[in-house]
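Please predict the structure of the following assembly.
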Amino acid sequence: MRVLPEPVQKLVDAFARLPGVGPKTASRLTFYLLRADEDISKSLADALIGIKQETELCEICFNITRKGDKMCEICASEARDRDILCIVEEPLDVLAIEKTGGYNGLYHVLHGVISPIEGIGPEDLKIKDLYERLKKEKINEIILATNPSMEGDATAMYLHERLSPIDVRITRLALGLPVGGDLEYADQNTLLRAFAGRRDLD
Amino acid sequence: MRVLPEPVQKLVDAFARLPGVGPKTASRLTFYLLRADEDISKSLADALIGIKQETELCEICFNITRKGDKMCEICASEARDRDILCIVEEPLDVLAIEKTGGYNGLYHVLHGVISPIEGIGPEDLKIKDLYERLKKEKINEIILATNPSMEGDATAMYLHERLSPIDVRITRLALGLPVGGDLEYADQNTLLRAFAGRRDLD
């Protein structure tokens, strides 16, 4: 006997394909939607269809933008500092940095990291496009904001090496204790980096 | 400046309306779908539309069933014990019990619990339909399988009171330590119930 009617099972399966959504969560979401107002599932369905049809990558920084815009709002904005470039792995990183409100420069989204294990080399990322960009734009500082992970560090090292012939300041985000964190719970590497990166108090 | 293009923000918002999905998870899912194969978002969108259009409640037990079937597979099955009835709060509870493979009777889904705080009384649940059912069907045992929560217990008590004039065995699921659980971590009430419900070893 099938435990769930087919349309219900289909939605459970579709939810379970999403990352971080296990079978229990998938069932919970499905049964919530069964009970909830039709508008909730409909707006989600519409948004899902729109996400692929109405978006594309910015021609300059490769962030996500609305289809037809060619340039994202950040690249198109007059208010941004056009001489500082922050290099990130994914569009989601742009969102995280924008939410801080503390950065006003431009971005370049690599769409991945160099990972020999997964067979991802520099040619699979938007690195060639970065070189082209640097020829055309007057950038004074490049912030390598790939993740502080093995692959992110390797990608930053690779870019540092390739970009150092250019006359540009190249920086990497600081490593150290997270704000509100607890020294006791920090891992050894983070703690070592926090010591190495200690700063004079004025 | 809008941080996200509108189609992206719409999907983030639609995900964030789901229970247990916060803004961070909503962004993560959205950016995953942006990168992933279009088929994944499309199958989810299709399933979402189907969930309301292709399902309805079983006329007998009020479990979810495929539209047009009238009766769910459990009510329609010849293989089930038709003299034992398990009363649950939600269709998801039927799924949980069916997955155990240890129950072969029928169900009755109340679609909620009595909750005076939320203004939900017996008349808002499928309780009247239960009385009608009991007039027609020959039931020997009713298992009150509402959740062991304040509202679930109150609903079970209410049903017990109303059903006791009928000549039928009325039971409630056992309370005690969860299998694989740790006595040390059990809450006091559970431990008290485990003592009260202790059983002789044969």
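Chain A touches chain B through 60 residues (CB under 8 Å). The radius of gyration of chain A is 22 Å.
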